[in-house]
């Protein structure tokens, strides 16, 4: 099993093209070509099951901003880096790459995982994994354990490390965005326009993926 953020292995030329496209230039997707530094022989290895995770951009983008700030990188680490780290274009490119080679990725929405133990078990069954082995609760990391971690890793994983299981209260379906968005101006200040721009850029891709996401009812034996 391998896990990665798609942009971290992307071809620099594709990265630059994406950055420029956010400024109004045309984006030239690589089509069915492998845009990553990961060998196609690994990506397309027999029995490979790609899983693409998505989250409502109103949560994903704002979370990315906070993490970058916690890492000591001011203002979302600058517009170019913020574009790279919040775009769902990477998942779209991966989806197109795999489907062009006859492989349909599993699209998993964070909301489903956070609000439904049944969904987590159904996903395990879909992957031929024992659903009884699914971790639905865990001990929160101790202060000693957290102090031993690299500061940047801690900043990016703090909510997970301090949790004791999926928190349904953090799911988009359970958040009053009208209220939350009123608080953004105080939180993001002069960067609010950039945050809203990245949300607007990501939302069409998120909605596109929503229609393709894995649902528990798709798995006949998912309980």
From TrEMBL:
Protein source organism: Aureobasidium namibiae CBS 147.97
SUPFAM superfamilies from the UniProt entry: P-loop containing nucleoside triphosphate hydrolases
Name this protein carries in UniProt: Uncharacterized protein
InterPro entries: P-loop_NTPase
Superkingdom as given in the UniProt entry: Eukaryota
């Amino acid at each position: 099993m391998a896990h990665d953020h798609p942009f971290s292995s992307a071809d620099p030329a594709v990265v630059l093209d994406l950055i420029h496209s956010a400024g109004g230039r045309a984006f030239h997707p690589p089509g069915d070509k492998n845009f990553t530094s990961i060998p196609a022989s690994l990506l397309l290895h027999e029995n490979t099951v790609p899983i693409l995770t998505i989250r409502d951009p109103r949560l994903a983008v704002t979370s990315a901003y906070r993490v970058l700030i916690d890492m000591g990188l001011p203002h979302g680490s600058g517009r170019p880096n913020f574009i790279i780290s919040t775009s769902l274009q990477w998942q779209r490119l991966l989806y197109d790459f795999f489907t062009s080679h006859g492989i349909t990725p599993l699209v998993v929405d964070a909301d489903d995982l956070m609000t439904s133990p049944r969904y987590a078990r159904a996903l395990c069954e879909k992957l031929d994994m024992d659903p009884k082995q699914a971790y639905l609760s865990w001990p929160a990391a101790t202060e000693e354990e957290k102090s031993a971690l690299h500061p940047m890793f801690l900043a990016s994983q703090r909510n997970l490390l301090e949790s004791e299981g999926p928190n349904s209260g953090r799911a988009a379906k359970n958040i009053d965005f009208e209220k939350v968005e009123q608080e953004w101006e105080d939180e993001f200040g002069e960067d609010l326009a950039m945050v809203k721009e990245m949300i607007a850029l990501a939302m069409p891709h998120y909605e596109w993926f929503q229609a393709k996401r894995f649902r528990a009812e798709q798995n006949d034996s998912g309980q």
